[in-house]
Amino acid sequence: MIRTDTHYIGRPVRSLQTMLRTLSYVYPFLPRVTPDGIFGERTLEAVMLLQREFFPPVTGRVDQGTWDAITALYRQAERRLSAPLPVTTSPGDEIVHLNSVQSMFRGLGSVLDGVEPGAVNGRHDGPTTRNLQWLQRAGGRPETGRLDPESQHTLEQLYRIFVTHAQSPWLTRPELLGGS
After folding, report:
1. Range of 133's domain?
2. How far apart are CA 19 and CA 25, in angstroms?
3. Could you count the other beta carbons within 10 Å of the beta carbon of residue 122?
4. Which of 36, 90, 126, 165 has its CA 20 to 30 A from that of 52?
5. pLDDT at residue 177 is higher than 70
6. What is residue 1's predicted lDDT score, i.e. its pLDDT?
7. Percent of the chain, pLDDT > 90?
């Protein structure tokens, strides 16, 4: 199931726990809370630790002020933890961001014709340029061979469809569907 912001409406404890869990990746002193909807000891501990560090007094209660402060910290953490902004690269560039791009092309190469095998080396080399041109041609765009935000987005969508979702047990194990 794809979760959206509306998924947690009417579930304040689970929403709180989701925010606390995300915050634990930014603030290692916080326990990793499981969003189970039960305000238990770990949730209480996380709230109290946040209150101690950021907004005393330490009460363990989540009143409107505490909720707003946790929400503000959560939004900051989400921005810090989100994927990097798409970049633009040209042939000859060397950037660590290309490692994930090249890895996605490798995954797509096993299921789509036209994707050239290449190294995952962070260099905008020949295979990377040709794969980007293939992607741009398939999308009806000018074949620049440069990685731009639109090419990055298209690549991520193709990878999600043909590699990530294709690994779903519902697709690879039809017996799970209940048929023969």
Report:
1. 97-172
2. 10
3. 18
4. 36
5. no
6. 39
7. 59
Final residue belonging to a domain, choices 81, 109, 139: 81
Average pLDDT along the chain: 85
- Concatenate the DSSP letters of all residues of the chain into one string: ----GGGGTT-HHHHHHHHHHHHHHH-TTS------S---HHHHHHHHHHHHHHS--------HHHHHHHHHHHHHHHHHHSPPPP--B-TT-B-THHHHHHHHHHHHHTTSTTPPP---SSB--HHHHHHHHHHHHHTT------B-HHHHHHHHHHHIIIIIGGG-HHHH-GGGGT--
pLDDT(170) > 60: no
Q: Is the dihedral of CA 119, 124, 130, 132 positive or negative?
A: positive
**Domain end residue (candidates: 14, 47, 81):** 81
88-129 confidence digits (pLDDT tens): 899 999 988 899 999 999 999 988 899 998 999 999 999 999
Distance of CA 97 to the CA centre of its chain: 15
Do the domain assignments include residue 121? yes
Q: Which amino acid is at 147?
A: L
What's the number of domains the chain is made of?
2
59 in the same domain as 109:
no
Q: What is the pLDDT of residue 96?
A: 86
**Do 105 and 61 share a domain, yes or no?**
no
Q: Give pLDDT, residue 176.
A: 52
